[in-house]
Amino acid sequence: MKRFHVHLRVDDLARNIGFYSRLFAREPARVESDYAKWMLDDPPVNFAISTRGAGPGVDHFGIQAENAQDLSALKSRAQAASLALQDQGATSCCYARSEKYWITDPQGLAWEHFHTLGDIPVYGKSQDTHAGRPSAAACCPPSAQASTRPACCVPKADTSPRCC
């Protein structure tokens, strides 16, 4: 089975957790200080929200594969359709270790295809070699890694980098 994945940027995590918990009639499967995720079965959706990003709205869409074979089939289909892929391979982001790649649609919206390998205790595990802080690049969709990165992927002088 595959799950549709939606990740929204929100301005008030607690308020949005309350809203989506009522909407879905269930509490999130995971809650962190800046993130929450519902793993819904009907319809099968991995719905995530976070306070990371440039502003409220859609961060990215995706398809979560149940296993490595499903991910490989998704990748083969995208390659056969001549879609440009940004393959991240094994990476850590959104409190999980995953195997993933990204596709960007004609409007510039990022689509993530991934297979979750396990949970991790931090949003992103990559390390910035200069400051010893998490690197935004590990979590940013490809459109956010271009030369015109949104604020969510650019380290600020007074704070640690934030992932998209």
List keywords for this structure.
164 residues; alpha+beta; 2,3-Dihydroxybiphenyl 1,2-Dioxygenase, domain 1; 2 helices; globular; disordered C terminus
Describe the structure in your own words.
The protein has one domain: 2,3-Dihydroxybiphenyl 1,2-Dioxygenase, domain 1, CATH 3.10.180.10. Helix content is 15%, strand content 37%. The protein has an eight-stranded mixed sheet.
- Rounded average pLDDT: 79
Distance between the termini: 26 Å
Largest sheet: 8 strands, mixed
- Read across the widest sheet, the strand sequence of neighbours is 2-3-4-1-5-8-7-6
Examine the coordinates and then state which fold CATH places here, giving the name of the CATH topology.
Answer: 2,3-Dihydroxybiphenyl 1,2-Dioxygenase, domain 1
- Secondary-structure arrangement, i.e. CATH architecture: Roll
The ordered H/E elements are: EHEEEEHEEE
Helix/strand/pairing category: alpha+beta
Strand fraction: 35-45%
Low-confidence stretches: 126-138, 144-164
The CATH superfamily is 2,3-Dihydroxybiphenyl 1,2-Dioxygenase, domain 1
For the record, the CATH class is: Alpha Beta
The number of helical segments is 2
Domain unit count: 1
- Helix amount, in percent? 10-25%
Number of strands: 8
Oligomer: single chain
